Amino acid sequence: MATNELIERLLDTTESDAFEGVIDALQALDDSTFAPDDSPKSVAEAAALVGLSPHTLRYYEQEGLVRPGRNSAGYREYSALNLRRLVFLTRMRMSGMTMQDLKRYIALVERGAETEGERREIMLAQRDRIRRQLRELTLALVTTEYKLRSYGGHPDG
């Protein structure tokens, strides 16, 4: 499956019962082999594909989080590797990971396999933050549904 299709599949997954294929798509994105149609993307194409603005892509580049290559005309080109990293960055930012933590994590990734233990610790801390957020959001949802019931009826109606 092409990188574009995998990214779209990941980012379009919104229903809780539709997450079954997400792990497979994530693993496919991590594989080192890609379909032949995985040509580099321009800033605009990459931004549209991962749901970010071109400004945000440039910011991530300035912060050293992603390093797109340049074509013969000097324009930025986002490779499949860059796109995979952007998917990771968007998911981590959405879940509340700080820029400081992202920069630290990416620096560790770029240092290689000897940093896997440190990266795992960062991901464990992030998982704990996400679980806490889920508990807080669940409580907010329950509170909202209670209020809807208090206004006379079922919360779905």
Automatic annotation (TrEMBL):
| Superkingdom as given in the UniProt entry | Bacteria
UniProt keyword annotations, A-Z: DNA-binding
What InterPro entries does its record include? DNA-bd_dom_put_sf, MerR-type_HTH_dom, MerR_fam
Q: Does the keyword DNA-binding apply?
A: yes
Name the Pfam families on file: MerR_1 (PF13411)
- All copies of domain HTH merR-type, residue ranges: 42-108
Q: Which residues cross the membrane?
A: none
Q: Name one GO molecular function term.
A: DNA binding
- Protein name per its UniProtKB record: MerR family transcriptional regulator
